[in-house]
Amino acid sequence: MSTPQSSPPSTDTSPSESSARSGGSTNWSPIVALAAGIAVLVGSEFLPASVLPAMAGDLGVSEGTAGLAVAATAVAGAVTAPSIAVLLPRTDRRTVLTGLLVAAAVSNLAVAVAPGFAVLLLGRLVLGVAIAGYWSFAFGAGTRAVPGRDSVVSTSIALGVTLATIGGVPLASLLGDAVGWRLVFGVAAALGIAAALAVALTLPPVPPHPAAGMAMLRAALANRWLMAGVLGVVLVAFGNFAAYPYIRVAIEDIDAGATVWLLLAWGVGGMAGNLAAGRFAGRLRAVVAAAPLLLAGGLLVTATAPSLPVLAAGVVVWGLAFNMVPVATQLWVTRVEPERAESALSLQVTAFQVAITLGSASGGALLDARGMQAAFLLGTGFAAAAGLLFAALRVPRG
Question: What is the Cα–Cα distance from 280 to 252, expressed in whole angstroms?
């Protein structure tokens, strides 16, 4: 494989770019709005896990069937991520991002009032489309609003994911117990509208790339360097999600009473990982290879921990390592394919969504057949393979 060459930078500048070059102060409100949007979307994606028993009982389905609400979202995202830019090649990306947040709000409202599981599932499919599109466009829109700060934009967006993971699931669980699961989705719908307004009001216009559409996607798919990195994303995300749905099983094998604070420790480690990936983005090849290898180590320690202190160390390393991955791989694919970043990011999103579905299913099958350690060792192997693959790939200089 040969290193792709970047085209000369465009001479077109936005007002934000002109301000940045003239030494004006940076307006971070668009980045805050974009991060809030991804936090709402990711929090919505995992809401069913917070209220699963009550939701299943109310709709008259088993908890296993109700769990399809999460899987359906991931499948919809995997299928639609590469196609949204193809279907909307000339639409201003601010309009698209705002529309996707509105769609997510409608999907949550549909779930909140769903008379049966079929309507709920349809709403969750719409949410998957919204998440896939938003992930694909948010980074490019952010770098347009705050030029020259790619690592900060990527870290900020990923931090929205971490905050949603740390706070969204437990808060939704508490709220669901207090007022019912339907109101939880109603609140998520309201937050989606608020995020849409924030994006619409703070983000400058983001015109699409002149080559956006099927031609851009075909060219990105032809980049063997990029596709090797997408394979690495599949491997590392598969490795994580072969184990993550079953983290409580690993904790309870050692000390069930430590579950809450160890899950919090995972989240705190994740926040540190987000920040570390952005801080050391200048050494991208090392970061993108080290994160999966650290993940493999964290999974291995967690699976084989003989005591609570060792388990805690493994969980923290696990959280730190995996939460470096979205930032590092987002920067990696846009560095490798700078002229077709939108399509590159859509392929990264597809890779994550496919890996979430396949990894969790494979880990669950191994958990039932061979026990927790087998599932975690599968994850360890995939994560280590991703680290070795990224270490073998050179990264163009930014």
Answer: 35
